[in-house]
Amino acid sequence: MRYVFALLAVLGIVFSSFALREHYRTEDSPCHINDVWDCGEVNHSQYAMVLGIPVAIIGMAGYLGLGVMAMRRANRALLVASVLGLAFSLYLAHIEKDVLRTWCIYCVGSLGVIFLITLLAIATNVFGRNRQTAS
Fold first, then answer.
1. Which of 93, 90, 118, 120 lies closest to 104, judged by CA?
2. Could you tell me the residue range of the domain that residue 123 belongs to?
3. Dist. CA 45–CA 11, nearest whole Å
4. What pTM was estimated for this model as a whole?
5. Which CATH number fits the domain that encloses residue 74?
6. What total number of domains does the chain contain?
7. Is the CB of residue 125 less than 8 Å from the CB of residue 5?
8. CA distance 105 to 84
9. How confident is the model over 18-29, as pLDDT tens digits?
């Protein structure tokens, strides 16, 4: 299971790196699909930085940490960290939906990845405990 977590973490890093590229892009965004889907608008907004750090870098660091926790089989820490990451991603999705009214395809992809990691972390912790109890 740890390799599944690690693979998902790598996918999250890929989505975050694409978002970071959009953050620093000066020309038109290639993922500007229409007024509803525009990665450039989202990644150039005031919400794309936290304490002067691009949100995409925070995402990359978070996914790296999740991958390390998975490889070390730190399942409880992975669960806590993934829930925090999901909460932050849901907050950002709220900003995209209700404030910016524009979505970033990379951000939505990242939200899907952190959702899967969280779901699997819950299952790993619940079923892992049941297996230990049964032994």
1. 93
2. 2-134
3. 24
4. 0.91
5. 1.20.1440.130
6. 1
7. no
8. 21
9. 999 999 998 887
